[in-house]
Amino acid sequence: MRGMVWTVGQTVSSKAATVLQQIIIAKYFLSDDDFGMVAMAQVVVSLASIGASLGVGEILVRRHQRFDIWVQIGFWLNVCAGLTGMLLVFGLVPVWNGAFATVAHLFGRHDATIPQVQGLLLIWALYLPSDAILQVIYARLRVDMRFKALAVIGTFYIVAQAVLAVSFAACGWGPYALVAPVPVVSIATVLIAWRLCGMRIGLRPKFRRWGFILKDSRYFLMNNVLNTFLQQGDYMVTGVFFAPAILGAYYWSYRMSTQTAQLIGANLTGVLLPSFAKMKDELPRMIAAYKRTCAALLLIGMPICFLQSLLAQPVFHLIFGDRLARELPLFELLSLGMAFTLPMTASTSLLLAQGRYRLNMFWTGTMAVTFVATVLAAAFCGSVIYVAGFVGGYFAIWGPLTVLLPLKGMGVSKLRFFGDVYVLPVLLAVVSAACGLGLSRVGSHGDLMQAVLRLGGWGLSLAVMMALFRPKAAMEVLPRLMKRAPRIA
Question: Angle at which helices 344-353 and 269-277 pack, to 10 degrees?
Answer without folding.
Answer: 30
